[in-house]
């Protein structure tokens, strides 16, 4: 599954067929789970505008565990032809996490609220607090990306620098 968030668009990320999501499944996440196609929202003025969401019934997990990713901005880099910077806010509920994934470009994450646990393949599990940041090189597998608290929310800003048109996130099964 891959996710690209172009400037000025609103997206909904849903796992499985849409009728399953409409059949009472929780809708709430941003970065999604494996095999979830991006679909343009029919009503960009809806309450979900600018938020990516997903239903996660196929694996039985509560969708509240999945983060909400809100696009902040995306701009072509005029001094680096072919590259784009995209910023998103990732909001984890208590106990929230992202499935293993990798990014096509470089990512710098800056923690703005709560405590985030992170692990890249081959590295240790690290814990980050507000004001701290971590870096993910292109293609690095992000094995652990989660809220360290089961009672408090956590948020980070993710700054992607990738090729224009690149699919920013690929989830692993």
Give structural notes.
The chain has 173 residues and is mainly β. Helices cover 3% and strands 40% of the residues. Strand 8 (116-120) and strand 9 form a beta hairpin. The N and C termini lie close together (9 Å).
Segments where pLDDT lies below 50 for 5+ residues? Answer: 1-61
Number of helical elements: 1
Please compute the radius of gyration using only Cα atoms. Answer: 15 Å
Amount of helix: under 10%
Q: Got a strand count? A: 13
Q: Order of strands across the widest beta sheet?
A: 1-13-6-11-8-9
Query: What class, by secondary structure content?
Result: mainly beta
In short:
By secondary structure, this protein is mainly β. It has one helix and 13 strands.
Provide key terms for this protein:
173 residues; mainly beta; 6-stranded antiparallel β-sheet; 1 helix; 40% strand; globular
What's the topology here?
Blueprint: E1 2-3, E2 11-13, H1 18-22, E3 38-40, E4 68-76, E5 83-92, E6 101-103, E7 106-113, E8 116-120, E9 126-128, E10 133-136, E11 141-147, E12 154-163, E13 169-171
Antiparallel strand pairs: 1-13, 2-3, 4-5, 5-12, 6-11, 6-13, 7-10, 7-12, 8-9, 8-11
